[in-house]
Amino acid sequence: MENNQWFTISVYSENNVGLLNRISGIFLKRHINIESLNVSKSEIDNVSKFTIVIYTTDTWVHNIVGQIEKQIEVIKAFYHTDDETIYQESALFKIASDLLFDERQIQNIIKESNAQIVTVARDFFVLAKSGRRFEIDDMYEQLKPFGIMQFVRSGRISVTKDEMQISALLREFQYN
Amino acid sequence: METLKEKKIQIKKEKTVKISGAEAIIHCLLAEGVDLLYGYPGGAIMPVYDELYKFQDKLTHILTRHEQGATHAAQGYARISGKVGVAMATSGPGATNLVTGLADAQIDSTPMICITGQVPRHLLGSDAFQETDIIGISTPVTKWNYQITKASEIPEVMAKAFYIAKSGRPGPVLVDITKNAQFDEFEFSYKKCTGVRSYNPKPKPNSEAIKAAAKLINTAKKPFVVWGQGVILGQAEEELKALVEKAGIPAAWTIMGASALDTGHPLNVGMVGMHGNYGPNILTNECDVLIAIGMRFDDRVTGRLADYATQAKVIHFEIDPAEINKNVHADVAVLGDSKETLNLLLPLLDSNKHEAWHNVFKEKYQIEFDTVIKKDIHPTKDGLTMGEVIEEINIATEHKAAIVTDVGQHQMIACRYAKFKETKSNITSGGLGTMGFALPAAIGAKMGAMDREVVAVIGDGGYQMTIQELGVIFQHNIPVKIVVLNNDHLGMVRQWQELFFDKRYASTVMVNPDFVKIAEGYHIEAKSVSERKDLKAAVQEMIASDKPYFLEVKVEKEDNVFPMIPSGAAVSEIRLK
Prior knowledge:
Chain A is an alpha+beta fold. Chain A has helices at about 20-30, 60-70, 95-100, 105-110, 135-145, 165-175, and strands spanning about 5-15, 35-40, 50-55, 75-80, 85-95, 115-120, 125-130, 150-155, 155-160. Chain A folds into 2 domains: about 5-85 and about 160-170, ACT domain (Alpha-Beta Plaits, 2-Layer Sandwich), CATH 3.30.70.260; about 85-155, Alpha-Beta Plaits, CATH 3.30.70.1150. Chain A is built from 6 helices and 9 strands, in the order βαββαββααββαββα. In chain A, a hairpin with a 3-residue loop joins strand 6 and strand 7. Chain A is elongated, with a radius of gyration of 20 Å. Chain B is of the alpha/beta class. Chain B folds into 3 domains: about 15-185, Thiamin diphosphate (ThDP)-binding fold, Pyr/PP domains (Rossmann fold, 3-Layer(aba) Sandwich); about 205-360, TPP-binding domain (Rossmann fold, 3-Layer(aba) Sandwich); about 380-565, 3-Layer(aba) Sandwich (Rossmann fold). Helices cover about 40% and strands about 15% of the residues of chain B. Chain B contains 24 helices and 20 strands. In chain B, the strands form 4 sheets. Chain B has a 6-stranded parallel beta sheet with strand order 3-2-4-5-7-6, with helices on both faces. Chain B has a 6-stranded parallel beta sheet with strand order 11-10-9-12-13-14, with helices on both faces. A 6-stranded parallel beta sheet of chain B has the order 16-15-17-18-20-19, sandwiched between helices.
């Protein structure tokens, strides 16, 4: 039996209504949970990029990426292991303002974790933290005893160490 | 006078010609060469039907009795003609009734366009009357789908729909059009689609891969070709024949590839798969080079994957990159259109005969003939067999008919024993296994090839799933020949219950109506036979008729289809009984 591991799938596509549904359906069909999903613009004008994280085998991710890539509005899809990518997540913590003054430890946590104070209001302040999942989890655990009013973490975003030759591919498609 | 005429022309030119979205749809269909479509009207598609009424001299609409029938008819038409089949329905239930046909066309790579009406733009998402999210529903079963909410989108989207449906690996496309977009007027102009920037329908063949394939084939001692529908879709029948003849390779087909090479050709060794022929299955695990052409290693073909052709080098000719290494690892993958790649391969092949290897297939065939085929086709017992009916159809049609089958025992028997001289002659629901496919598909097939004899062979179960389409055959006098092989059972499920569920026959016995009376109710000439002495004459009479004809053959109730690769077994574990 092949082992499961983490894969980051990068999908370059047109920006069309319904495409997310079409792509997520491919995971649904294989009963695979999407662990993290991010959709944004890419380095190419008018080309969107999906960053999808799944936990599965090499064979399955190969098949899945093939099936994603054959969707009409998908230009190209890639998959990479964690070793092959630089990746981050972002998190926001909303915390009661009085804690900032009453609990000296909080200031240390902010300093040590390299978190940013995004805003300070009368009742609450907001911390932003980017980094690896374990770093964010760590900060979460440290702040938890003091009370977190709200917490949210984004999906993974990643770039690959190797080049993704998408521009050349687009040119080739156009002149085909 | 002259100047007045000129003036008139000038005025005409300046006046912008605006037409409704509904009329634009008709013009798009005509521009794509469509002259026939199947469908069913309803509220949200009525503006288009109103235009169909005006254009009925150019565009024939066939009112099926159920939207599912429209999709299968469009599929039958597409499969026999190679053209895009078109089906139309209203929103809500009309649209959801298309889903089975879409799924069938998707898995069997059939070019089809489904047009659905939709509630007006401003009502989308409001749970309006007959509103359903058909884009969401149809996404997993379409090659592409799109919702048009503005009339001006119609020409470009329709052109793209046709291009996508028929190019590369074909498939179904659904276009959903809100009612406001059908009513609104706009300036119409049409340009055929020639490319979509994110879509590469035909990968360019790689000459290195072709050289590697040729090298493997030329040095093989026991090469074996298994081809699928990719040969038919790529119109590579001549190239396939040239390949097997030049390199002297025994060749077998998947159910979807049937008829691409004459069944009487000496190198055509039969069908692979669960109920395929003994030799091709067992020798899949003895060949040294397996040359797969336009097929996708479906589980019904491979049996247990871990023991499928593990001894062989596999060459996979395939247009769809997602099929490479999906189920079976390809030692050499040749991407591209089958006609192009085979044409590049042919000059690199050495002439060969492989007589000893071919003789092994002959020996295996003899074993299968003695234990299975002989009693299927020339039975000595009292009850009629499905095999002897197919054989009588072969004789009466001189191997020239297109055989349209449903799903189940009759389908396996028909595919095993039908003889085909011409390509595109085996029209069946292969991948999805859709009961109810055959009757409407036969209507479409006949209308797509009026010069050909079209014989629908159907079981008593599947027949009753779309039996209402007899109404279409009657209304339009479509001369299809319908053979129902009636064993009063859901035969294939019954067979599995007998073999694998200790004969617990749960819900597989059917108490059937008088099928002859039903056909006669639709004014279709009908006959029923239950004895061998009447069979030949009945089949001959049916084929001789130039009208629609229904023939029921009451066959043995508890026959099984063999050979059989039990579910989960290896191809080499195929059972003869």
